[in-house]
Design goal:
Blueprint: H1 2-12, H2 18-27, H3 31-63, H4 75-82, H5 87-111, H6 115-138, H7 142-161, H8 164-173, H9 177-181, H10 193-204, H11 209-224, H12 233-247, H13 251-266
Helix pairs in contact: 1-3, 1-13, 2-3, 2-12, 2-13, 3-13, 5-6, 6-7, 8-12, 10-12, 11-12, 11-13, 12-13
Transmembrane segments: 34-57, 92-112, 118-137, 149-173
Keywords: Membrane, Transmembrane, Transmembrane helix
Length: 276
């Protein structure tokens, strides 16, 4: 489940398109191009990892080498949380919650919602479900608990996405942001400082498609080691655009490759997501 959730779903993000939007903006590409280029990469990555994990887990289960460990340090706290909802309430919400999010997917498909609009719809649905669950579970303290949960969620969100802001700003400034903020001082033939740097680098160091792909994978993996996953996707997008301009093609594929490796490494499959 970790591979399907933190790996395939989080790295592809075809529905909300938050991750592709960040990498596409950093690379100066349309979101649709990055998503289209990522489809075969996501399929290959998903098939290889899930099949390999299944085989290894079956082998370890036969050998009896799998050690089951709990995720909660306090058994008393776990038992207390389990008593907040009755069995019927749990069954009811287990049916309603997936239906609500499936309705969001249908609405996004029909209304063609993408990016921020899709995020707002999903976020609003999640907040509404959180409010209902808190009121049902905590009764009179429901609103107070809802505020506590929201604060905890916002703190986690800022901690994960915080590093994206300065990294993305740096590379936006090296692209079209330079002329918008500082002024039109670049030569007429310039494509932006970052892109010019890539072209100049390619003229000095031989740059092939293979080298570019390996480099993007390494860059994405290194940026994901901090446990965020999203902190380095703007860097991956900028480097993908840089290499794509240098070799003359493949900027969308390189950008998608960097995005996938960064989130697979840092999104929770190999490196645990940062705790609060």
């Amino acid at each position: 489940m970790n591979l399907f959730g933190h790996g395939i779903a989080l790295s592809s993000d075809f529905v909300i398109q938050g991750a592709p939007k960040l990498t596409a903006d950093a690379a100066g590409l349309p979101v649709g191009d990055v998503i289209s280029a990522s489809i075969p990469l996501v399929i290959v990555m998903g098939l290889v990892t899930t099949i390999t994990a299944f085989i290894l887990l079956k082998r370890d289960m036969k050998r009896g080498t799998i050690e089951l460990t709990g995720t909660n340090d306090s058994n008393e706290e776990q038992e207390k949380d389990e008593k907040l909802l009755t069995l019927r309430q749990k069954q009811f919400f287990a049916i309603i919650i997936p239906i609500a999010f499936l309705a969001d997917v249908v609405a996004m498909s029909i209304l063609k919602l993408q990016g921020g609009d899709a995020t707002a719809l999903i976020g609003g649905t999640a907040v509404f479900i959180l409010l209902i669950l808190s009121v049902v579970a905590h009764k009179k303290q429901g609103l107070e608990k809802t505020t506590s949960y929201l604060i905890h969620g916002f703190q986690f969100g800022f901690k994960v996405f915080g590093p994206v802001i300065p990294i993305a700003a740096f590379f936006y400034l090296g692209d079209s942001g330079f002329t918008k903020i500082i002024g039109d001082f670049l030569p007429n033939a310039s494509h932006g400082i970052v892109n010019d740097l890539g072209v100049g680098l390619a003229s000095v160091v031989p740059l092939t498609k293979e080298i570019a792909a390996v480099t993007l994978s390494v860059v994405g993996a290194i940026t994901g080691l901090d446990g965020s996953g999203f902190s380095g996707i703007s860097l991956a997008g900028s480097v993908g655009s840089l290499f794509g301009n240098a070799i003359g093609s493949g900027a969308d594929t390189l950008t998608a490759l960097g995005q996938i490796t960064a989130i697979w490494i840092g999104g929770g499959t190999l490196t645990h997501i940062k705790d609060m």
